[in-house]
Amino acid sequence: MLKNLTKLLQTAAVFAALGDETRLSLLNRLSSEGPLSITRLTEGAGVTRQAITRHLDVLQSAGLAVSRREGRERVWAMDPRKLQTARRSLEEISARWDAALERLRQLVEE
User: What CATH number has the domain spanning 2-109?
Assistant: First the structure.
């Protein structure tokens, strides 16, 4: 029970992190362009470097991004493992809805 609650809370954090347009855009860039520095991520983002840093911290807290130091810069990369967990959660929800709709269809057709 506690393990399921922990999993739900972690998945909720992923969806909350993805619910912001800027964070979703950052994650999209990291997934398509690979690891990027804060400087590169700030280019064309339309927000300050400090705002990008805060958004990346949220992504990191949700387990969606990781960072490492390279000289004076911090380089960020996407970590897809939590996205896979979120995808599995959505698949479970979808399967439950499909089953409920099938039961409803059977009731209507009787």
Answer: 1.10.10.10
